[in-house]
Every structure is written in C-alpha cells, then in structure tokens.
Amino acid sequence: MNTLPGFLFLLVSLLAQIFMCSELKRYLQKRAVDAGVGEKLIRFSAVLFILSLLPLLWRAYLGWQGDRSLAWLMRESFLLSHVWWMGLVGCAMVLLGCALFRWLVPFATHRARTGDVDLGRRDFLYKGVGLAAAAPLVISGYGALIERRRYELEHFPIKVSGLSSSLSQLTIAHLTDIHVGPFMPPEELALYVDAVNGLRPDLIALTGDFVTGGDDEASPCVATLAKLKARYGVFACLGNHDSFAGVADELAYLLGKNGISTLRNDATTIQIHDTGIEILGIEDLGTGRPDLRRALRTAEKHPGEVKVLLSHRPEIFPVAARQGIDLVLSGHYHGGQVKLLSDRLSIARFLTPYAEGLYRLPRGTETEKKGANLFVSRGVGVSGLPIRLNCPPQIAHLTLRKA
Q1: Which terminus of the chain has a smaller tally of CB atoms within 10 A, N or C?
Q2: What is the pLDDT of residues 324-334, one digit of tens each?
Q3: Domain ranges in the chain?
Q4: Which CATH superfamily is domain 152-402 in?
Q5: Rounded CA gap, 206 and 331, in Å?
C-alpha cells in the first residue's frame, strides 16, 4: 500500500476494531453471557487484529522474500489480514448504519419502552442484522481468494479502415496492471504468461504498472515476463506505480535486456511482409512526461500502415485520435475492481469516461467510418484493496480487421 492510503486504511481498521469490541461487549452483556467467557471472546478478537498486523511488519523489515522457504506463507497471511481488515470495516459500517437507523426512527424505541414488542420479530431483526454484518467478511473473502484469481480471456475485433491483407487478422495480446507484489507473486504471474503464450499472438503489448510499490518487485516481475513469446515482439510502456516505486529506469533496463522494448515517448516500426505497423509508447500521463509528438516524429522516420499507441492511462485518446493513431491500448483503472448491482456501476466510471472496453472516435480530419480505436483493459492485478467483485482479471486478445 502507498504510505498515506495505507496509514488511513490501518487507522480506519483500528477504529473499526475498537468499535467492534465495544459492540461485542455490549451484546454479551445483553445476552447475560458469563463475564469470564465474554472477556476471553473480546481478547480473542483483539489478538486476531494484532496477528493481522504481523504480515505488514514482516513486509516492512524483511521485504517479500525474507526466508524464501516461507515467502508464500507471508504472502497468504498478508492477503488474509486484508480480508480480515476489510471485513471488519464492513461489519462496523453495517452496525453503525443500524444504530443510525434506530436513532432516526424514535418510534421503534418508543414501542420498546412501552413493552409493545413482538419478540419473534425482534429476534428475526437481530439475526438479519447479524447476517448483514457478517456479509462484508464473506464478500471480501470471495473477492480476494476466488474472483481475484479467476481471470477471463476475451477476444475483441479491432476495425481499421483500409487495412491491407498483410495486416488483416494480425493479433495483439494485451496485458496490463500486473502489480507484482503482495497480491501478485511471480508464480501467479507465470500463469498469465502461459495463458498469453498459448494464444500465439503476433504482438504482445504491456501497458504499465508492472509493480505495486516496492523496489524489490521489478526483478522478479521481469524475470517472469521474459518468458513471453510473440512472433513480432513484445512492447511496453510504464505506469504510475512504476514511478511511485522508483523503479521506472530499472524496469526499462531489465525489460530491454530481456528482449522487451520499453517505449518512453518513443516508437518503432515492424516490417510485416510488404507493409509495416508503427508501435508508439508514451510515459504515464500523471507521473511521467508524456510527449506524443516526439513519439510521432520518431515513427515518421519509418512510416507504417497502422499506428498503435501504448499509454498506461486512456485519457490521451482524443488527442491521439486527432493525431491519426489507429489504436490506443491502455489500462490503469482495473475496471473499478468492484462493480455493484450493474456491470456499469463502479468507481472507475466516476473517474474517467474510459473505464474499460472498446471506444471509437473520428481519426484526424476524416469521417467517422475511418475512426480511431481505444481498448482499456481491466488488467490482471489489484491495487489498494486486494479484491475483485463482478470485475475479474482480463487478458485481451485483439485482432485487426478491415473496417
């Protein structure tokens, strides 16, 4: 976790723990549970919270490796501790909401004082509140332990006007927002690498956020990505987390050393039969110094038929479309990671007009028919909270087709 968000999350978790202990004590007193048993239950819950902090201390003092034979244990305990924290905060919010409701509906308390109480109904309501309070723990466990690892391989046609037969059906595998770190060990990333290689793509595009936030994450990430195979090469741009971790230069060097071209306001042209495809890449829009014009000038030295731009964030799309880019590949928003009720209801929808999926705009001064395409992937990793709900990880397989 980044320093400030991580500190705030721990503070909220601590307050939630204190609140839950007080609620547990009040519940035990109402139920007239033996004082000794009640104290043991309260101490047990406090011990669970203290244990949940141990993986964080391990991370702070030993990194993710420490004793390599126990690294897997530390990662799994770190994940379980986050499930506990998220569930605890969710439970506290539910109970606070119920308390607020009781305060806002004085008629209910009036009936309780007058003794006009339906005991069966009250017991039903108590059980309902208990189930609602337990739901966040169950949901966070499902999102962290199951859906976070249940990726989807999705295929998308990309229509390009006037595409030649040499480039028609050319395939691009898109992988983004890997976030190697506490919730994406190299062993798990290797599964995604195998899945991408199984597609036998012509090109592979990696659009940033290779690491989560530690300076010890770059090397194991690149060592795993080095096994990617594509007919015409693997290309990458960097993301904001790569800058936050202070490993942008190291990543670019290691990726290049392992045959993966990192494009930082740069471009290259791949010759395919009698034509070519330009691959451009810019630095992150928020933390880097993106310069699309510079990349375009480089591409002009060896012009190709199709221009593909790698940009970690998708907001470059309108500018790229005006500059004649045919396809922009991006990530960054993870599709929101959590979608509630509707497939379109996620926090990412409030942050950007390009949360996930395919988008199209007029290209340059030409007609809508000759348009530019943007594809925004949900990515495969997680950031902040280690959960995904109704928003599974995604490997995208894109195929160029003549519009």
Answers
A1: C
A2: 999 999 999 99
A3: 3-145, 152-402
A4: Metallo-dependent phosphatases (3.60.21.10)
A5: 9
